[in-house]
Amino acid sequence: MMTQKQQARIGGRLRTLREERNLSQESLSARLGFNDRQTLAAIEAGERRIAPDELVRAAHVLGVDVDTFLDPYRLVGEGSFSFRAKDVDPETLSKFQEQAGRWIATYRELGMQVGCEPRRLGHKLELTERSSFEDAAASADLLRERWDLGNVPADRLEDAVHRELGVLVLYVDAPVGISGAASHLPGQHTIVVNRREPAGRRSFDLAHELFHLLTWDAMPPKRIEPQEVKRTKGNRVELMAENFAAALLMPAEIVARGWSTRGDEDVSVWLARTAAELRISTQALQWRLVNLGLLSRAAAAALPPVPRSSRVSVDQAPPLFSRPFVQRVADAVNDGRLSLRRAATLLGVTVLQFAQVCAAHQHPLSYDLPG
Q1: Each residue of 50-89: b (16+ CB within 10 Å) or e?
Q2: How many domains does the structure of the chain reveal?
Q3: pLDDT value at position 210?
Q4: In 3D, which of 179, 73, 61, 166 has the Cα closest to residue 116?
């Protein structure tokens, strides 16, 4: 017997696929052999159960497999994505979005199985495209204080985003050219970060995508946004996101205090050391000094590259995914709600890799792997 949730899922996906193909309800109804449009309208609204033979016919007419309607571990026509990407071909981006959709849908479905209800963000930034960059920075300051992110916000930001907003953060091996993404899905918003990026960029991507989630309704981002934002002629919303991220990760008082007490320490050395402490890039810190009026633009442009001998290594990649995500999937496997192989397939890893990821997040599987 089909549940109400399954019925609603099928109806919603049927409507999405019809609209993607620019078909009217009248046109699709005729192809499905319905006597009138109202029958299809009722199915799409989740008010009428679709019969098995009707479902098979719909899959054939729309050119998809039946699982497209039934599989709860994928997103079909749900949510919107915005990627920070450069020089990525459309096919690669679409495949990555499909995989990201599986991660998100898997987390949501397994949560619903144990009574975890969808969660609204509960917080939005009161900003519009007419807001100033100073407004964006001030919003970051307030958020940092509210969440008690401390003197090194990058260390606490991921946990705070999940705890305060219910946002899922995933560190993944994204294709070359993709540094991060935000998924705006009511009930399960997600930030995806390429774990292969340097630590400083990972921190900035997390804060940048957080800005987009908190302003999505007022300023929805494009599907593809640039990795590097031009500071003079860039997209205004992206520049606001950069100012928000900079203020969130590099508290003005911390940066100013460190700058004023650096003594005779070489500027490049100070930049490298302080950037490593804050877990951001030296370039981001350099421009933060400019925006705070502590360093002139000309002086910043004239600074030599930071010597390798002065750099502090902070680039150890985090384990795949995140602890909340892995814990939810591992619990489902340990409880028998999801097979080990099915879990690995959904995550796009091997069985052994899945076990290793679980161990890395201190949530090992409760039984031995098959030989």
Answers
A1: beeebbeebbebbeeeeebbebebbbbebbebbbbbeebe
A2: 2
A3: 97
A4: 166
pLDDT at 231 > cutoff 80: no
Residues β-bridged to residue 178: 85
Chain center to CA of 312: 28
Domain limit, last residue, from 14, 37, 70: 70
Asked if the model's pLDDT at residue 309 lies above 60, the reply is no
Q: By three-state DSSP, how is residue 84 classified?
A: strand
Classify 317 as helix, strand or coil: coil
Supply the angle between the helices 252-260 and 282-291 in degrees, to the nearest 10. Answer: 90
Query: In sequence order, which residues have a C-beta less than 8 Å from that of residue 290 and are 6 or more positions away?
Result: 296, 297, 300
CA atoms within 13 A of residue 367's CA, in its CB half-sphere: 11
Q: Hey, what amino acid is at 122?
A: G
Answer whether residue 328 is part of any domain: no
Neighbouring CB atoms inside 10 A of 185's CB total 19
Domain that holds residue 271: 252-310
Q: In the predicted model, what is the mean pLDDT of the chain?
A: 91
